[in-house]
Every structure is written in structure tokens, then in C-alpha cells.
Amino acid sequence: MNATRYSAPVLLLLALLAGCGNPPAGGPGQGPAAGGAMPPPEVEVITVTTARTTLTQELPGRLQAWRTAQVRARVEGIVEKRLFTEGGDVTEGDTLFQIDARTYRTAVDAARADVDAARLVVERDRHLLEIQAVTQQGLDAAVARLKQTEATLARAELDLENARVPAPISGRIGRALVTEGALVGRGDATHLATIEQIDPIYANFTQPGADLLRLRAAVSSGSLKRNESAKVELRLEDGSAYSLAGRILFSDLAVDPSTGAVSLRAEFPNPGHRLLPGMFVRVIFPQAVMPAAVRVPQRAVQAGPQGQFVMGVAADGTAVPVPIKTGGMAGADFIVTEGLKGGEQVIVNGLQKARPGTPVTVKPLAADGAAPAARKEG
After folding, report:
1. Model confidence at 364, in pLDDT bands (50, 70, 90)?
2. CA pair distance 309, 320, nearest whole angstrom
3. Which of 47, 131, 162, 205 is 20 to 30 A off residue 292, Cα-Cα?
4. Measured between alpha carbons, how far is 29 from 21 in angstroms, rounded to an integer?
5. Domains along the chain?
6. What pTM does this model have?
């Protein structure tokens, strides 16, 4: 009875001891956590080269109509009709508004009658002068009266003509500022509507005076060459690029003392009226040509406590930070003025995986992000 009572605990203890004495299959150190070391992270790099490059600057600007004309009432009266579609295109000379012309038509008829009467008096006095029935002074007075009535008639005809309000220029007209039945022209030339010509269209922007001085100094020293034929590009507020290039029209001769900047203006073709006055844009402004420039993508350049740097790949295959200085833009790329000379490998993609001093696996940058430094301009 006693043997039966203690046999189960004893057997359990023996089984546990036997299990502790058998090591896991495969021997010590070969469990699943003891696998091989992780391979170095893969990064995409460019090989830095030098090339003739156009130095650009991207500046904020606003669009402005090429020509703007205010349509105003030139005579007093009640607006009878509006003869245009708001927001539509009009041609110079088109009738936009018709002002009640009855008063002016009556004035023309009266002035024409006065002219006829004055002309008869002159003809009569000329005959009377031949028989000395009137003096030369009397004839001269009649002639003066005729000229006065003719001037009154011309003014009345002009007022009648001005009752029709034409488009002063061709372009796109905005909303009507008055409605039919409104009294206009009393005391001043009432503003009726505005017409804008927007093909071509202006882009107004400013350049810091200090940047302009540095550019001129670099051109004078020979490190940069002027690019007189370069076209200006435009980036819209949504980030999209405008397809048609423009040209620089002028830059101010003086720096604005309140802003320290120089005003510039570019002109862009706008056949589809995609660009509208007042739009905020980014003007990509070519400034000069650098004969042998080093350029790297913006995303490869990082900023640290000591300034800008890129992550390069050393000869032993490890990532290493390289301090640089940049001096302007070439399209979407930075121009590197110090720190890189050409031939270095710079990491562009995979920066978050590259740690200074750690090995990396190098892979050339994919074709759709090919190194801009290898592209030659001009």
C-alpha cells in the first residue's frame, strides 16, 4: 500500500532530473537567437562630378496683368444696357454699356440747327458787305459766331458718342460694377468695369541686394559667367511647373531701402490663360553660368550643429559625414562650393539607415533620380 502511494511522485522527480541532463539538440550556442550578423544596410549613392552649370535662384513673386484698363463713364446718365458677359473676353471697341442718349441726341439736333442758322447769317453778311450794307466788323462777328456754334455741335456729338461705352483695350473683363438703371457720371467718371490683358503676363519678384552684390563680384572675378540668353521658369502655388518659359524684362536701378531688395520683372506667354493676376508663384531665375560646378540633390544635404554636410562613403565602405558649403541652386540641386571636388560617393537614398563609421552596401542611384551633377547644361 505504501509503495503504491509514493511511486507517482518519485517517478515524476526522476523524469525531471532526466530532462535536465539532456542538452538541446544541436549542442550549446545553436538556438534560434544565435544566428549570423545582420548584413550592412543598402544605400543609393551618386558619384560626384563637375559640369558646366547654370546657377539659379528660386524667388517668390506675384503675377500681374500685362495691361489693365478701367472702363469709366464719360458722360452722365442712366445705364440702359450691359452688353458683355462678365468674365468673358472682349475686343477693343466693343460696346460694353449703353447710357441713355436721348438728352444728348436732342442736344446734337439743337446744336446742328444753331450751326445752320449761323452759316446763313455769314452768307448774308458777305453779300451785304459787297454793297456796304454791313461793316467788316459785323461780318467778322458773324463768322466767330459760326465757329462757336460748330464747336458746340462737336461737343454735343462727342457726348452722344460717349453715351456708348466701348472697351478701351482687348482682354478679359471682370464683373460689372454697376447695374442697369444706375445713374453714372455725375460729378466723376464712374468706374464701370475692369479689363485685363493677361497674355502675356508679368511676374514681379525681388532679389536680395546682398545676393546681387555677390553675383556681380563672382562675375567680375571670372568664377561665374553671365548667362544673357537664359530663360526664366515658373513654379505655381501647387508645386507644379509652368510649361512655358519666360524672359527677364528689367531690374530696378536701386535697392529698396525698406526691404533691402531689388525689384525684377519677367514676362511669360499665357495663351491658355492658366496664369491669373494675383497668383503667388516661385520664379526660377537663372543668374550666371559656373564652368565647373559640383552639384548634389537637395535631399542629400543635411544640416547639423556645425553646418551643412552630406553622408559620404569612405574607401573602406563605411559611412562618413562630409562637411560642405553651398552657394546657390541649379534647378532643384545645391551647388557645392566647399567640401566636394568630384569623384566622391554621396549617399542620396537610405540616409536614415547610414550611421557614421558603420559599413554600408553601395548601390547606384536609380535612373529616375540619376545624379544631377552628371548632367551638363548649356
Report:
1. very high
2. 10
3. 205
4. 17
5. 43-54+292-374 (2.40.420.20), 101-162 (1.10.287.470)
6. 0.66
